[in-house]
């Protein structure tokens, strides 16, 4: 994937189990083309995995993934067709699930949601 540094990459993904791996590959190719540091690239891969996994588990698809450069780093957005807003929940020690948004918050400079006519966008910015 060859992109101009300022050109966002936007793709539609199915809301299926394989979407997270596909999103990681797309984000990885984009940040490599842009010359983003390996540390930020690794964090972006984990963040997009969590955002896409949450959308697959809790929302309706298809999903729209957009990754773009910002002055301070990169921005990852995942749009889905559910108006329900994500919220971190208390971690249950004996559960393998429920840590996604905590991970996103820890790795991102900032994250949030934006409503849209047919759902929402969950985004994260990494420095």
Q: How does this model look, in words?
A:
By secondary structure, the protein is of the alpha+beta class. The chain contains 3 helices and 5 strands. A 5-stranded antiparallel sheet has the order 1-2-3-5-4. The model has no long low-confidence stretch (mean pLDDT 89). This is Histidine kinase/HSP90-like ATPase domain-containing protein. Residues 13-124 form the Histidine kinase/HSP90-like ATPase domain. Keywords: Kinase, Serine/threonine-protein kinase, Transferase. It holds the Pfam family HATPase_c_2.
The total domain count is: 1
CATH fold-type name: Heat Shock Protein 90
The CATH superfamily bears the name: Histidine kinase-like ATPase, C-terminal domain
Describe the biggest sheet? Answer: 5 strands, antiparallel
Structural class: alpha+beta
Q: Quick one: overall form? A: globular
Low-confidence stretches: none
In short, what is this structure?
The protein is of the alpha+beta class and 127 residues long. Helix content is 35%, strand content 27%.
